[in-house]
Amino acid sequence: MINKFVKFAQHHALKNSKKIILLAISITIFIGSGIRFILLDDNVMNMLPANIESKRVWEDIVQEFKYSDFLFVVFGTKGQNVLTKEKLAIAWDLTKSFGLINQVEEVISISTINRIDSDDGFLEVNKVMPSKYLNSLEIQSLKDYLNSNSNLSSQIISKNKDYISIIIRPKNEQEFSNLVASVKEATKPYENLYEFHYGGQPYIAGTVPQLIQTETRKLMLLGLFIMSIILLINLRNFSAVCMILLLITMSLVSMLGFLGWAFYFTDSKYFFFSFINSSMPIVLLTIANSDGVHMLSRFFREIRNKQNKTIAIKKTMHKLLLPIFLTSLTTSAAFLTMLTSPIPTMSGYGISIGFGILWAWILSSVFLPALINLKTWDFSSKAFLKPSILEKLVNSISNIILQYPKRVLSFGIIILFVSSFGIPKINVEVNLINLFKPGNIIRESTMFLDHELAGSMNLLIKVEGDIKDPKLLNQMIIIQDYLETIPSVNTTVSIANVVKEMHKTIMFGEPRYDNIPNNKDKINNLFTMYSPTGDPEDFGSLVNYEYNTGIITAMMHTISTREIIHLNDQINNFLISKTPNVNIEISGLMMFLKDFVNLVVQSSITSIITSIIVILCIIWIFFRQFKFGFLSIIPLISAVLLNFGLMGWFKIDLTHFTALLTAIIIGVGVDFSIHYISAYINHIKKNTSKNNITEKVINDVGYPILLDVFSNMAFSALIFSTLIPLVDMGGLMIFAMLSTSFGTLTILASIMEINKNKLYKINQK
Amino acid sequence: MTKYSILIIIFNLLFGLTGYELIQKMETRLKPIDSKTDFTMTLTNKKGKTRSCTLRSISKNDGARQIIWFLSPADDKGVALLKIEHKNKLDEMHIWLPAFKRVRRIAPSKRSNSFMGSDLSYEDLSSRKIDEFNYTIIDEFKNDNPTYLLEIIPKKHLETEYSRHLTWIDSTLLIPIKEKSFDKENKLLKEKYFTYSLISDYQILKEVRVKNIQTNHSTSLVFSNIILNNDIKNNFFNEKNLKYIPN
Question: Hey, which residues does B141 pair with through a beta bridge?
Answer without folding.
Answer: B147
